[in-house]
Amino acid sequence: AGVKEDSFNVLDLAEYTKNRPWWRKVFAPSSGSSAEKYNVATQLVIGGVTGWCTGFVFQKVGKLAATAVGGGFFLLQIANHTGYIKVDWKLVERDMNKAKQQLKFHSSGNKMSPEVKSRVDEVIIFLKKNIILTGGFAGGFLLGMAS
Length: 147
Known about the structure:
By secondary structure, the chain is mainly α. Helices cover about 75% and strands about 0% of the residues. It contains six helices and no strands. It has helices spanning about 15-20, 20-25, 40-80, 90-110, 115-130, 130-145. It is a multi-pass membrane protein. This is FUN14 domain-containing protein 2.
């Protein structure tokens, strides 16, 4: 009995996705709008399902992060109280004041770099062209966060 060898084609997904982002295939790259490619019900379903999944994941990750931060803070307080660690509160206060000054300095300029501004403009244009999909996503996201 001979052994049959199957030949497999290997697709390098990293190379494939460099030039073809998934959103361009899904949301009509020629028009830039899902409204011309899908009907209203399909747009709402796609937006709602992806929004719900995203909201559900955000809720779970948020709970995990809050538990980790709260637990870490609680353990630090216990270690400080029992004498395992000593906190230099003057140093903490000085560093907090420095951070406040830096935040005031950076927020007073309020200038965005051209790269960030162009990306923000692209996102706004996409959201305007795909308003039904965006609405479905927002609703699904809120439902996902609530469930």
